[in-house]
Amino acid sequence: MSLIVLVSVGSAAFAFTHVPVITLGAPAFQPFGPSTSRLAISFAQLSLERGEGPAAVTHGALSVRTGSSGLSVERAARPDPPTPRFGASMAYDAKDGYVVLFGGWNFTSYSNQTWKFAGGIWTELSPTRHPSARFAAAMTYDAADGYVLLFGGANATAVLGDTWEFSGGQWTKLTPTTHPAARYDPGFTFDAADGYVLLFGGGTSTTFFGDTWKFVGGTWTRLTPSVHPSARGGEGLAYDAKDGYVVLYGGCNQRGFCGGSLHDTWTYLAGVWTKLSTSNHPPPASGGPVMVYDSVDGYVLMFGGSNNTTSFASTWAFSGGSWTHLTPSPHPSGRVLAAFAYDAADGYVVVFGGLRWGPPHDTFLADTWSYATGSWVRR
User: Fold this and answer.
1) Taking the chain, what is the end-to-end CA distance rounded to the nearest angstrom?
2) CA 272 to chain centre
3) Is 288 found in the same domain as 148?
């Protein structure tokens, strides 16, 4: 869809041999608004009035071009995002400089697609090899080994326990001799203080796990802390860079769509789990939230989740051992199992899709949102 604006400038006819191009410093696909259009049009119109020739001006999603017939303004076509889904896995690939998304489910089919998100634009990749179609796989960037790490997930025929790495646009299957049991939706993050990827919990159709694993140097090792969270899946897990430990919140320990929702908060550091005081647990009991460290704002961000009755649309910050309810407006609709990551190249948390669970009907989502400096922006 495009918007065409014609502006008459004098009556002279123009004949030029080149089209100068002006690029204004703005992120790709900046929303088309009055200030954006005035700025872009003024540059193009000024070129025309001065007799400097046709000018092509690019300002985010706005393309302005002048010619002998006047000035036209078009909104560039936005590349299609991934189709609606929930349970897709997402991580920022620090080595390659973009966010990677894999898989997902829409109750009809499971995806084996790989997408990248950079500069506000979704692009489907075509790796020569990739994991099988699945949803709710664990995925994070392994900073110690320098690649995105994926583990497990589930599809229509199996709960999975395979391990893959992604780097340079390609997937490679790893074959560690020891690994966690097959599962989906465990907590998964890179523990920068301890220097390894940390996995906790997850489940199958019949079992929830309460085990703790680390991955580093291509090897899985089961850890045996004497105290740990109860068995669960769908918990939020993120490394809190400001406070220097991993933080875990909530999860589910019963069948159904996050039945038995939990609302406990734990920290993990140097092989030790510590339960925090219940006075610091204001978020509602839920599983499947967005939970990621927001480097711009300096706190762990949590959004959404479900309690088997409805999906939440609340935004929370965790810092210094305490939760704070934030009230930005606008914000994404309530959802569970959205894909999320901190996009270090673009400087914001990015959230994609998920499932809006609950009345009046369930809805699979395909919207993209960013969060930074306390505000949500739909992309």
Assistant:
1) 17
2) 28
3) yes
